[in-house]
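*** Fold description ***
***
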Amino acid sequence: MYDIAIVGAGIAGTYISRELERYDNLKIVLLDGESDVGDEISMANSAIIHAGFDAPSYKLKGKFNAPGCIMYGKVCEDLDVPFKRVPSLVVAHTEEEMMKLHELYLNGLKNGVPDLRIVFEKEVHELEPNLAPDICGALVAGDAGIVSPFELVAKVAENAVDNGVELRLDTLVTGIDNLGDHFKLTTTQGDIEAKFVVNAAGVYADDVYEMVGEPYFEILARKGNYFIFDKEVGDLVKNVIFPCPTKNGKGILVAPTVHGNLLIGPDAAPTWKGDISTTQDKLDWIKANAHKNVPDVANVYNKIIRSYAGTRNTPVKADFTTTDGDFIIEESPVKNFVNFAGYESPGLTSIPAAGLYVVDEIIVPMLEREGYEVKPNPNFNPKNRKHVYFNDLTEEEKIELIKEEPKYGKVICRCETITEGEILDVIHRSAGATTVKGVKKRCRAGMGRCQGGFCQPRVTEILAREQGVPMNEVYYDKKTDSYILNDKTKDIED
């Protein structure tokens, strides 16, 4: 019997599980139907840490965005996650758009956003020389940032497991029975019993809740397409460039990534849950809109190395007609069952503040109400063991490391200069990689110009060797539908 079962191992579920480990003597299990943590919404997004001027202050988004952004530096330092403070610029082409920027500025002040200012034509082009000539001003948020979202989720999960959380992947929840004093969760890996349930199932959160209660919200899936460019053009912009927002969303951004690439996207279109296909018409639309603000993007399309799509989970609550799009963070009408749902942008940014809130203001009081004596965990360690980023070392440091561990001297991914030592490290960590994509997300082997064309066979060999399985039992991603090798084509005798 577990005290708490958390359904969904994206950024929400992993972070909540980690926060709960700050309290002593709780037996927590974290469940996900995928073969890795953060494999859906948390994997494919803009990777932007928003300053917090956009969401209305009366929404949970407005409440958690700015504090979450401020907390990010410490969180990423503790977890050893790549993160940079990079200003965001919301640009205006017209006087009407400048008026909208003034509204955002005032809303940002209300939300407690620091380092916020409006600049005009001369200064905005000094800040960002490659902007379109007709841009007449911008709202500058100096406290915004960029992060590696898939590395973040993996490191949060690692810290949670190191502190005592039990992680069960490939464990899809197919049913939940409310037995009065506890819940029985039926999964693809057998039944699990827990006294409390936290539903952090992303785009499937409404489906999970309907297993146990009468529906009172619905999650609508929207898909966004993106392009990633080679690092050769990663410095086309220095800041995160947003168009002036409309009722349809924040618009197509142009931004550097934390690893030195260039990113443009996303669009937003209704889709079915699980749809991450890309379509030419949507990709063409992104291109057409990106170069309205940064015209030189049109000159570097030959440097695109990957296009991809991700889904978002827009909530519809209560009467099923209102789509005000706020987070749903509350104990549900079903006692001892918490919904952490509708967690779309700025969810990634908000999680340090929202995770703290749901644990301290909802889950802990719920535990105390049911007779738990909740005490701080004296053994909680918020820090991860440091990961060696070989390519960031000095020549002297590289030589010393290779003397200590020769596998750091063997480069597997030439595009990103990722060594066998780094790959072994991410495989053997708690919540470590078990698939080719899992390795890719944690140390970037396969993220470069050739997108794994050269290194994937070697990564596959390493995974097979380290896990003690044949190569045809190593998967790219999900273990049900992403095999890499089927069988030998021929046997060669010595």
Observations:
- The mean pLDDT is 95.
- Residues 336 and 370 are 9 Å apart (CA to CA).
